[in-house]
Amino acid sequence: MYVEILVLSQLMHGSKHGYEIKKNINNYISDTFKINNNVLYPMFRKYVKEKLVIKEIQYQTDKPNKFVYTITEKGKEHFITMLKDFQNNISQNLEEFLVRVSFFKHITNEDKQKILNVRELYLQNAAEYFKRENNVSANIDGLPCKEDFIDCEMKKIEIELDMIDRLKRKYA
Length: 172
Description:
Layout: H1 2-11, E1 16-17, H2 18-28, H3 37-49, E2 53-58, E3 66-71, H4 73-84, H5 94-102, H6 109-134, H7 146-170
Antiparallel strand pairs: 1-3, 2-3
């Protein structure tokens, strides 16, 4: 879902053609995932059909015509709805969380707190799981570096919980 949020976010700042949106998103997200035309243009077809975006032809001389996409009011509402939709089933996905935090300016403080609380609960449960696992023999699962792995995960969780705490106070 975060890719859809990123696509619509590009249109929240004005009309753009597909290549520009793809380039902007690929600059925004990690090198492990790149949005491609096989993802982007079916998404646009769906959005046009659902009247979330309008597709217009930009005629050019001596070049192929470009399709320019503009978000509708319905599309803006859908964007906000997707931002606020952060349920337990996606709370474990760091990218889903960070994308929503990146667009906090578009939602209320109450909705920000809800997102932060869901992610915080997931992290607290993950920390409890790693603490229990750390009490089991390090080699029981055949992982000779299990304790190091758990230590690393716990540090990441602590850092993120600290960030969430700061954001919760900021948007209280």
